[in-house]
Amino acid sequence: xxxxxxxxPGTFDPITNGHLxxxxxxxxxxxxxxxxxxxxxxxxxxxxxxxxxxxVQSEVAAISAKTGTKIQVVxxxxxxxxxxxxxxxxxxxxxxxxxxxxDYEFQMAGMNYRLDPSVETVFxxxxxxxxxxxxxxxxxxxxxxxxxxxxxxxxxxxxTRARLGH
Length: 166
Fold this sequence. Notes:
Layout: E1 5-10, H1 17-27, E2 32-38, H2 49-67, E3 70-76, H3 80-86, E4 91-96, H4 99-115, E5 120-125, H5 135-143, H6 154-164
Parallel strand pairs: 1-2, 1-4, 2-3, 4-5
């Protein structure tokens, strides 16, 4: 059997404990995981692409050491199926938090399958303690001066506070 290579795309603005949960769980079932940090200017990111890549890289080293899975973090600036092909991936990993995520993710999985049926989308349910965490909400809480320390890893917390002047 060949190597199981998957990609986990996202904006990661900022990376959350929910993202890290999905990365850990995906790394247990894959031989290699490529995390694609999306440009996604439509979401008006708090952090520039390069800093988001750096933040994700700093968090996944421990997961890679723990699971033995090679994890690579790279900018994602193309169509997702093209990104998958470029990295030799046959799996797209997506995390689902709540039922509301399913509709959007179902549509994306269908479109990606039509573009390249050799790439499967695999959904991982967020762990119970992370089901409500969304980067968008974390940013909103932080912007309003709320405590986000239970939602993000320490470096992301430090950088978010610095970026917002807290």
